[in-house]
Amino acid sequence: MHGTSRQLNFYLERNSQEHNSKEHNSKEHNSQVTEPPSPESTTAGKSISSVPDKNDPVANDDDRSPRSRGAEILIILIGSTLLVLAGIIAPNFLKARSRDAVINANPITIRTPITGTLQSLPKATGLEVHQGQELAVIRNTSTNRDQLERLRTELQAARSRQADLRGQELSQRQLVAEIRVDAERQRVLEIRRNRQDLLQTTADLRRAQAELAFAKRETRRIEALFRTGVLAANVYDRARTTEQERRSELAVLEAKLLSGRTDLEAATNNLVLRTNRSGSDPAVRLQETKRNLQSLQGDLYTQDQRVKGLERQLTAASQAWEKLRMSVLRSPRQAVVWELQAQAGDLLEAMQPVIKLIDCGNRWVTTYVAENDLNRLRIGSAARVELVGRQLTLRGEVQSIRSGIGRLRLGEAPLVPIPINLTRESEVRVRILNDVPAPPLQFCYVGYTGRVIF
């Protein structure tokens, strides 16, 4: 292409030089014609002009002018054509082209989870479905309900026991409330009685203190008379014994006063210090009733948990039975129906494929390019896919590049040298962008042949 351009420029420069030389010769000729001829040269000129000179440039210019202009026009046309062809062909040499490839997409196989009869499915392929849309219904009329009936019976018995325990708990709560009232009344009475006992003990203590003081004085007086010999020894001994008795009585009353204060404090704080109370005592009855209530509450909690567990089992069994009895197949995402692999009325086995969808949002094309063109490709490079038979171009980007196809055994050293003339191509995967609407009835162009241009 560069050689053709140099030849074209050479022809144009040569033609321009010839044209300039012709114009120069023409001007000299015109200047010679305008000079007045001399009389001597008139006759000679006539004789000379009658014979044309082959070296005369004016005569040659008149004869060659039509041919030169035709050549100029032809050269210009040829040059223009070459320039246009160069402009068309040059971009193709600057771009990498691949072999024809087929547009592909991710398949989504919808299977039935149960065994049953297929009752409904899409009417035809090429339909667009949305995420969560119902695709097919499978029913199984031979599902066993024995487990459901057994769970329902157990749940009914557990609920009956639960209601009985709730009634017992309510009665025990009422009994606890009544006994608590009696116990409160008894506590008030005990506080009142303890206070009265404490007052009586305090008065007795004071009297004992006074009697002890009198006994001490009497003992000292009798001791003085005894030492003078007025009284006998037995009188002195009796006085000393009386003093000791008064001391003992005072000590007993002091202990009784301390015990009375302790009983009053315990009764005030609703505490029981005596262990000789009978079963009819409100405080004792209250403690026993509370223990019974706590035991009932524990049994009721256990029964509540059992009822909840049976309810969960029944719910799960019901759902499982419903799933075994009927299954609704739904689309996991927006897609297009590619193939119907069963018909309405067919008896299907579990995990048997029913419908195959294609994800039009994830389309790609895998093609092969020469390794010499890899320097023009990068991951993420733009690409164009021209559909064969349609005036449509899809945009894409390079997703992966893998070389060594057919020439490499992964992990193995080649035992035989690779032939020199073996085709050196690399596998290039191009992800198709979703900027062009993909018609569902044409399956989003999946399966179409295209030429990839990078």
Considering the chains and any ligands shown, give keywords for the structure.
alpha+beta; 454 residues; 3 domains; 6-stranded antiparallel barrel; 6 helices; Helix Hairpins
Summarize it.
It contains six helices and twelve strands. It has 454 residues and is of the alpha+beta class.
How far from one another are the termini? 23 Å
The radius of gyration is 63 Å
Spans of at least 5 consecutive residues with low confidence? 1-8, 26-55, 57-62
Structural class: alpha+beta
CATH topology of the largest domain: OB fold (Dihydrolipoamide Acetyltransferase, E2P)
Strand order of the largest sheet: 1-8-11-10-9-12
> What percent strand?
15-25%
Please tell me the CATH architecture of the largest domain by its name.
Beta Barrel
Helix percent reads 40-55%
Task: Tell me the domain tally.
Answer: 3
Strand/helix succession: HHHEEEEHHHEEEEEEEE
Mean pLDDT across residues? 79
* Total count of helical runs of at least 4 residues: 6
CATH class of the largest domain: Mainly Beta
Number of strands: 12
How many strands, which pairing sense, and closed or not: the largest β-sheet?
6 strands, antiparallel, barrel
Q: What is the approximate shape?
A: elongated
What would your notes on this structure say?
The chain has 454 residues and is α+β, with helices and mostly antiparallel strands. The chain has 3 domains: 2-94; 97-133 and 332-453, RNA polymerase II/Efflux pump adaptor protein, barrel-sandwich hybrid domain (OB fold (Dihydrolipoamide Acetyltransferase, E2P), Beta Barrel); 147-298, Orthogonal Bundle (Helix Hairpins), CATH 1.10.287. 54% of the residues lie in helices and 19% in strands. The protein contains 6 helices and 12 strands. It has helices spanning 2-34, 39-49, 57-94, 146-228, 233-268, 282-325, and strands spanning 97-111, 116-120, 128-129, 134-139, 326-330, 335-340, 347-348, 353-370, 382-387, 393-402, 425-432, 449-453. The protein has a 6-stranded antiparallel barrel. A 4-stranded antiparallel β-sheet has the order 5-4-2-7. The model is unreliable at 1-8, 26-55 and 57-62 (pLDDT under 50).
